[in-house]
Amino acid sequence: MKPIILILSFLAYKANGSCDLEGPNQGEAGIGIILVPGAKISGDAYLPILRKIQEEYSSEPMWIASTAAWFGDMPNPIEVGGQINTCLQLARDKGYDTSRVFFAGHSLGGIVMESYISGNPDIAQGIIMLGTWLPDLLRANNEFPVPVLTAIGELDGGGISYLRREWEETHDLSPEKQQLSKTIMVPQVNHGQVAAGEVPESVVENDIDAELSESDAHSNYAVRVADWLGLFLQNKDSTQYEKSVKNFLVYEAETMEFLEPFFAMRDAEETANYSPIVKDAQIEIINGEVDHPVTVTNQVLDAVTFEIYSPEAKKTQDEVHIKTYTHMMYDFDALDFNNHLSASTVKAKLKSADSIYDLVNKPTTGKFMECSVLNQKSYELALSVASRQAIERMNEKGRSLIFGTDENIGWFGVPWEVSGSLKWEEQMIGPNGQVTLTSTHLHSDTGFFGYPGMHYCDILSPYRALEWIYIESVRNKMQF
User: Fold this and answer.
1) Which residues are CB-contacts of 35 (< 8 A; sequence separation ≥ 6)?
2) Are 211 and 223 in contact (CB under 8 A)?
3) Which of 124, 164, 218, 273 has the smallest set of CB atoms within 10 Å of its CB?
4) Sequence-distant (≥ 6) Cβ neighbours of residue 283 within 8 angstroms
5) Alpha carbon distances (Å) from 179 to 131, 163, 447
6) Least confident piece of the model among 23-32, 411-420, 468-477
7) For residue 202, what are the contacts with CB-CB under 8 A and spacing of at least 6?
8) Is the pTM of this model over 0.90?
9) Are 281 and 374 spatial neighbours (Cβ–Cβ below 8 Å)?
């Protein structure tokens, strides 16, 4: 109890905060930016990117500030109010205008900052989320009391997966709010490059190697922040405002182009409560050996219902109807950060090829297609939509992926439905390492009592395969 009291007392003492503040680069201060740093990164490490924003934003003077001296270098809800008020008071003491202030945050600092501003919106013109976003822990939308810029780097290992969701949630806002609230991808930069100098090893591990210099990365972020600030100008005929509007059309178009494969593979994983990839898997298992028309339906079920349901096949006149079922498994994402939005495993209940051959009076083969073959198909589908740059990056710098032999779970013991998920095993083979992906399957022949002609597979989602290509194959520490 005593250590807790000491910590709380220290935090209360520190609640007044500390601030690194620099004056405007021209004339009297017109607007201000106060930044909350990421975890284990000092406030002064963000002054270079703030100076770049000053440089890019020439419409009016700007003062910049970064909160500093957090307890344990960890932004937290207890100190944030004092930190921000310290920066505001210091700006007032120097004669700077604090009536139009924007707040920025990097990584954890963005979460702490947005939480504070959501309860104190009157002090902010807008917020800037760099390598971070409005979390979906208590809400599943981007409604916020002030405009929000969400900017996530193309090589942000912990953030790329969330860009698709944040784009959609921003575009679900009213047209009026979308004029100032934006979600964009920042090309060729990673998570750590928001700051300057060395970043913690934990940041490096979760990131993808940079492709631009620190200065160029800061410029990529800064020009987009400056253009966003230009959207707030009252004079709609000004050169800066017109430039900002035109540039954001470009930023949003390049973001949409970047995200198109993610939308496509998300829809291939699941659309309107069914899984297209599972329907395709059932057709693949039959392997074109049935002369009759085949109709496959699929339904995505919760875990309890999935355990109860079994796939069915029947023939009516000259057509074969197959019912299949799917359950999606996802990463446990308690912090809404550094995970993936794709299904970690697509558990599919299918009918065996022999059960369909038997139905249409064709000779059975006694063979079952390996789930690894279906996983390869998902991977090929993801490759077909991935950008040339992402594929080249993976081929040059990434781990290689091979598909291992299935593991048979068996009908007795732990039920297949709760037996686990796809296994990714990394080995230090080759120049960049190798990962083996293994599925579990459960099969039965057509005469098996109770569950005849079943073909159950753990399948790789094409959305997961795409996240492998863009993120995990090249992330410094694989998270699958």
Assistant:
1) 43, 46, 50, 64, 65, 66, 67, 103, 104, 105, 106, 109
2) no
3) 273
4) 294, 296
5) 21, 19, 63
6) 23-32
7) 40
8) yes
9) yes
